Amino acid sequence: MGNRGRDRFGICVRRGCRPCHWCHGFAYSGDRAPDLSLSCCAPDAAKVAIAPLFIIWFGYGLTSKIVITALVCFFPILVSVVAGFHSTDRDQLDMMKAFGATKWQTLVRLRIPSALVLIFAGLEIAAVLAVIGAIVGEFVGAQVGLGYLICRA
Fold it and tell me: Which of 13, 40, 102, 135 is the most exposed place for a label (fewest CB within 10 A)?
């Protein structure tokens, strides 16, 4: 994947798992949870179609390719983090309340460990999408790279 691909994937991971998304899954539970079905259904074709706009806005440099890659990877990570926090067993949450655990203790000792499986599944999907996003960014505006070579072939 190279240094650029690894850096782009790292940016996506930091954006998708940043603390506000962790707190989003922690704060909303049960019936109050917002519906994220639209964010997981966001088509990649639309992201590919708006890639030329990112080239216009951010130029032909590396920044536009990073933004395209981050956009492609963001939603799978977001959906997996929120789904992971909502997968916590209700009986275990009730037990933590009965033992007098604070919200922070519940988060650190119960919600994060139970969400790790889905979080890593989202990271696995995002790793594949990071490569696709990098190639799409090079399709649209690059002078070197795999996307450029595919267009020239």
Answer: 102
